[in-house]
Design brief:
By secondary structure, the chain is mostly helical. It is built from 5 helices and 2 strands; from the N terminus they run H-H-H-H-H-E-E.
Length: 158
């Protein structure tokens, strides 16, 4: 749902900075060097999976990584709660670009500020170390109720 410049369209004003930070800190494979860049990678993974796969992949590790290592401003928290609910238990609801723009912009500026202040935190745990099989409480912001999501193991027919 595109309402103007977006990171998905690569025309957001912070898209060049996002690209620069990604090139500096997010390798093609393996962990990033810093907690902040791993939070950025988690946000990018969620963003990409929504637009490319409709949240067809399990995003619980990325969601929990952001929850563990980033405490956002109120606008971020509101936007992330909506994205989080859909990422953990997709219902096919369209998420406006503005929510992803809010989340990504705040994380990009946070990573850049830490970089400029030379205060990047060495990585202690990466996204893939987060347990993705435990029950995750999902807050449904519009319904005011809680439900739970559990990763289902896929059977292989061989």
């Amino acid at each position: 749902m595109n309402e103007g410049p977006s990171f998905w369209g690569n025309d957001h004003e912070l898209s060049p900075l996002a690209e620069q930070l990604s090139e500096l800190y997010i390798p093609m494979s393996g962990a990033t060097p810093f907690v902040e860049s791993e939070v950025l990678r988690a946000a990018i993974k969620i963003h990409y999976d929504y637009y490319n796969n409709g949240f067809g992949n399990n995003m619980s590790q990325s969601v929990r990584y952001i929850e563990r290592f980033y405490d956002g401003l109120p606008a971020f928290n509101e936007a992330f709660s909506i994205i989080r609910a859909q990422a953990l238990a997709p219902t096919g609801v369209d998420i406006p670009d503005v929510w992803f723009n809010t989340v990504l912009a705040e994380i990009i500026l946070w990573v850049d500020a830490a970089r400029k202040a030379d205060r990047l935190t060495p990585l202690v745990v990466e996204i893939f170390d987060m347990d993705s099989t435990e029950m995750v409480a999902v807050a449904w912001p519009f319904a005011g109720i809680y439900s739970s999501y559990e990763e289902e193991e896929e059977e292989y027919d061989g």
